[in-house]
């Protein structure tokens, strides 16, 4: 069942990597084993993230809806606080769902990019994991990745670590050091990306309540999960996640700077910046006219008025 679902995605992943490698070799990079295959994984990541841009903006809209509805959601929670009877719980659930519909959002909105990347992640994992079998003829080719190309990809390396190396199975100390560095980078970039979104682009109301506590908890849990599970990922998959997280960080930085959420710290900073620019522009436009030039030469003496003669 899993093979049937993932094979079309594996086929697309294989073709994107193969096509990217062809572009890099045309530009002058070495054919066969080498950095061109490393950059083909980077290109695969970029292609996927560009394809996900419309969903990224949909995620932003949904996330802002979640932020804007926090005061109303807290009011509903306060209204039914302490009420555990079935009728009250049903009414609370109904009013909460009505708020989600009103603001056009849902609790899973912030997880969309990760969820949509999961099949691609597993497909890339399987492609890289099957390289050795394809190279020695025990596995069938995947798209354009035949026996010879699989051997080239498998023996391509990043600072001495082959793309198919896994920390748990490799005996190379060099590979293990590279894998550990990539795992730390993957977890750190994920943490800072989530922290940037949570701390700078959320209004004060969204940073309070049970949902905010859950988001803060996930801020630490997800990086830890990836930090632990990273020992099972091939080097190529770790490269994919590091580049994907860096893309997310840059995309969010631009969005927060140009289109901050209403009521957030980022919006306050943007308004202050705009006010400073407006004040500076107004000062330039309202600059006083230069004083008229004073006459040069001998100073004219004031004339004395004739005093009235005494009688």
UniProtKB/TrEMBL annotation:
- UniProt-annotated stretches for the region Disordered: 272-311
TM stretches of this protein: 12-29, 35-57, 177-197, 217-243
Which parts of the sequence belong to the Membrane insertase YidC/Oxa/ALB C-terminal domain? 37-256
Q: Which N-terminal stretch is annotated as signal sequence?
A: none
Q: Chief localization class? A: membrane
Compositionally biased, Basic residues: which spans? 301-311
Q: Does the keyword Transport apply?
A: yes
Keyword field contains Lipid metabolism = no
Subcellular localization: Cell membrane; Membrane
Quaternary structure and partners: Interacts with the Sec translocase complex via SecD. Specifically interacts with transmembrane segments of nascent integral membrane proteins during membrane integration.
Against NCBIfam families, the record matches this protein to: PRK01315.1, yidC_oxa1_cterm
Q: What is this protein called?
A: Membrane protein insertase YidC
- Report the gene name: yidC
